[in-house]
Write a structure and sequence with these properties.
Layout: H1 4-12, H2 27-43, E1 47-49, E2 53-56, H3 65-75, E3 81-82, H4 83-91, H5 94-107, E4 114-118, E5 122-126, H6 133-146, H7 154-166, H8 169-172, H9 175-189, H10 193-215
Antiparallel strand pairs: 1-2, 2-3, 4-5
């Protein structure tokens, strides 16, 4: 089974070029990847969340560099902190997270790494998809969930909130399907506390960036 971060990164990739349609350096992707890490720790019963805080349950490492790094930071805190606090703290490690997620997808032979040069001079790296079945499976699951009235599993609720935060449903659904499903997407996305924090954090950061640009 793929992790939340791996599923999210696959959805971000352009199948033809092997490049992310949303850069991991962008606010949306950074925040969503961090949210994916925290959500994974929740399902592994290492942390728990209430309305707005994260509580440590078990500091035992899980054997994953990114998850263990996040767990180490959380376990080193003397008190429970807001979800947004840990998201801001971990956003600084977004490149480390991206590097690990990419390597996991390469190791699982879902992606391959290609080094090329633009105009025979400028180096560039791409990650084309080897096996498209995983991506098709993710998209099919999301479509079936959004276009039906079925009650989602807890992991599906988390994935919906992360995908919605990145705006990927506009690529997965047709324009008519997306317009018709916006209310259901919003409803499902609100069911997950980490997903709500991801969306709110992106909104706050974007608003601050716009204000900064206007002041400049």
């Amino acid at each position: 089974m793929l992790s939340f971060a791996e599923e999210l990164y696959l959805l971000a990739l352009d199948e033809t070029t092997g490049k992310p349609m949303i850069s991991p350096r962008d606010i949306e992707m950074q925040s969503a990847l961090v949210g994916a890490i925290l959500a994974e720790l929740t399902f592994l019963q290492r942390i728990d969340t209430d309305i707005d805080k994260i509580h440590l349950l078990d500091a035992t490492p899980v054997g994953n560099p990114v998850l263990d790094h996040a767990l180490s930071l959380i376990s080193g805190s003397t008190e429970s902190q807001l979800i947004s606090f840990w998201m801001n703290a971990l956003r600084a490690d977004s490149r480390f997270i991206e590097k690990h997620v990419l390597q996991e997808l390469i190791d699982k032979k879902i992606l391959k790494q290609e080094d090329k040069k633009i105009l025979w001079v400028f180096p560039t790296r791409q990650y084309p998809i080897i096996d498209g079945r995983e991506l098709q499976n993710i998209e099919r699951r999301l479509r079936n969930l959004i276009l039906s009235d079925e009650i989602p599993e807890p992991r599906e609720t988390v994935l919906v909130s992360l995908v919605d935060a990145c705006g990927f449903f506009q690529d997965i659904l047709s324009p008519r399907e997306f317009q018709r499903s916006r209310e259901r997407i919003a409803l499902l996305a609100r069911m997950d506390s980490i997903g709500r924090t991801v969306t709110n954090l992106i909104r706050i950061i974007n608003k601050a960036y716009v204000m900064m640009m206007h002041m400049g």
